[in-house]
UniProtKB/TrEMBL annotation:
Keywords: Membrane, Transmembrane, Transmembrane helix. The chain crosses the membrane at residues 41-64, 113-134, 146-166. It comes from the Bacteria. Pfam families: DUF1761. This is DUF1761 domain-containing protein.
Length: 167
């Protein structure tokens, strides 16, 4: 697997966040929805905030292939079979791949983008909505963050689906 792609893809949330949460884009609405202001935002330890964001983004980039690349589960599905049977099964998979290209089906940026957005809306959106309900936040708070994650996970999923080589 080309592991070098994971740290690069983990930069996407920082880049999208820098644009999306800018005051001229959605940042002003977000600050009103959260009750924050520019002074309060400047008071945080930016090295820790960006460093931890990058670390968490690496974790997201590591798990996202299982959600956007259909073929990523084949190895784990067959991990329990013995070496002899495993060799036969993987040989059969190689034959299927040579005949039908099964390992490259749906391996496009658009496909990964679609699944990334789907994960953002259904999974992340649900989690954010649950938290927002208990925090008594308005729905604009949820929609702002779901918008960010839809763009971010869409881009991350697209890049991973297009360029990540599975072994």
């Amino acid at each position: 697997m080309n592991w070098w792609l994971i740290p690069l893809v983990a930069l996407i949330p920082l880049a999208v966040g820098a644009i999306y949460y800018n005051e001229r884009v959605v940042g002003g609405i977000w600050m009103r929805a959260t009750g924050l202001d520019a002074d309060k935002l400047r008071s945080g330890n930016m090295l820790v905030i960006f460093g931890m964001t990058y670390l968490f983004s690496i974790l997201v980039a590591l798990i996202l292939p299982s959600m956007v690349i259909h073929q990523s589960g084949i190895d784990s599905l067959l991990a329990h079979v013995g070496d002899e049977v495993g060799a036969e099964v993987f040989a059969a998979l190689d034959t299927l791949d040579q005949e039908y290209g099964i390992m490259s089906l749906h391996r496009t940026f658009g496909h990964g983008f679609f699944h990334g957005v789907l994960v953002a809306i259904v999974f992340v959106g649900s989690l954010l909505a649950i938290n927002a309900l208990f925090e008594r936040r308005r729905w604009n708070y949820v929609l702002i963050h779901v918008g960010y994650w839809a763009i971010t996970l869409g881009l991350m999923g697209g890049v991973l689906c297009q360029f990540l080589v599975l072994s």
